[in-house]
Amino acid sequence: MKGLRSLIQSYLFAYGGPGKPLAALADDLDTRMRRNEKYIIACALMLVTLFIVTLGLVIACRDRPGMLAAITGAIGVPVIACITAMRELWREKGAMDVLIVMVRHLPAGEAKIALQQYVNRLSRREDLSPSKDRNLRDAEPTMIKTKKRSPSR
């Protein structure tokens, strides 16, 4: 999603002065979406290939349990990597679908505001991601000062 954010930001910064119009953003998003669709298909084909290879190896090595454990362990990592890549590509594709419709059908001023809000949301999400050094669980709790209540009579 970083690439999507930087693409949108380049149009937002160019929007204020001479630069590319927002209609060109829709075309660039459409091009990027078509490219991502090819990557999604490639990942799906890789998953099918891994499944067929795994099935063949399991049938060939069905008498050796140690080999079956090694096969499933070795195939598991690429399968998880393919699924993770497909998930990210699909999320980006969904976002691009919405952005394309928004840019093409909203007035330019409203589209710019909506795009800026979307970029801000993406920035916050990346700032709070667990891969960053920020770990919210390790944060110091803040003390809230409260007034002491007088005993009621």
Mind explaining what this structure looks like?
There is one protein chain. It is elongated and about 65 Å long. It has four helices and no strands. Helix 1 (2-15) packs antiparallel against helix 2, helix 1 (2-15) packs antiparallel against helix 4 (108-127) and helix 2 runs antiparallel to helix 3. It has a domain at 29-126. The protein is an all-alpha fold.
SS-derived structural category: mainly alpha
Count, helices: 4
Work out the strand percent.
under 5%
Q: What sequence of helices (H) and strands (E) makes up the elements?
A: HHHH
Q: How many angstroms separate the termini?
A: 61 Å
Q: What's the total number of strands?
A: 0
What are the low-pLDDT stretches, counting only 5+ consecutive residues below 50? 130-146
> How much helical structure, as a percent, in the residues?
over 70%
Largest sheet: none
The radius of gyration is 25 Å
Overall pLDDT score: 78
Shape category: elongated
Short key terms for the protein model shown above:
75% helix, elongated, mainly alpha
